Predict the structure.
Amino acid sequence: MLLEAFGSFLQLIFLAMLVLAVVALVFAATAREDAYRAADKQKKSFWLIILGITVVVNLFIPILFLQIAGVIASIVFMVDVRPALKAVSGGGNRRGGSSSDGPYGPYNGGR
């Protein structure tokens, strides 16, 4: 019984690793190419290849070492690259404001 519970726990961890890789791949694919250059990060094609390989490894090749390397790459993308891309692209505020809005409302230039 304990062995079955541990197996189920491992399956949940593997599923979480797959979901993280797929989400990172989707974010990498939807970002603009020029945002990667402006943020001084690796090329978009680099991240698409790395994260695509991570998804394939998690789906079809259950080698733990490769899965851990893929999780590290996914975490690096989500924690480092994605916020830099959002900062460059101006995607930090998604509440419907314009680019001239400050933290307390619209900035109207002293009018």
Observations:
- The mean pLDDT is 85.
- The helical segments are 2-30, 33-38, 44-60, 64-89.
- The longest strand covers residues 101-102.
